[in-house]
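Records of this kind hold a single protein each, on a pair of labelled lines. Below, a sample record shows both lines together.
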Amino acid sequence: MVIPGDVLPHLVDVEHPGSKTDRYGNQVADWSASKHAAVDAWLQQNTSAEDTDQRSAQIGEWLMLCNPVDTAGQPLTVYGADRVHWGGLDFEVLGPPGPAYTPVELHHYEIRLKAVEG
């Protein structure tokens, strides 16, 4: 069971970074070797704010609902370090995605996003 496609009008790009070893031997995110997954989703803005203390920044928190599969039908995994791109906006995933279950299976993900411009 999944969310019907007609209520997921937004095609988004979920980006998961690759990894590399830095000069200290630590594994760090490598965005030049990232993997992408096209996902049908519902996005809505929950909050917005303006940071004018040190700069002129627009900050928005959004909620993304999506099925646990990408548009190709492959299982979708989203991590707190991932990014989501949609409509010219770039979002950071805030924390681990929230899985929502029916009594028998994973139904969809609820993913909090943050966009910062400026």
The first strand starts at residue 10 and ends at 21. The chain has a mean pLDDT of 90. The beta strands are 10-21, 27-51, 57-66, 83-86, 89-93, 98-101, 106-117.
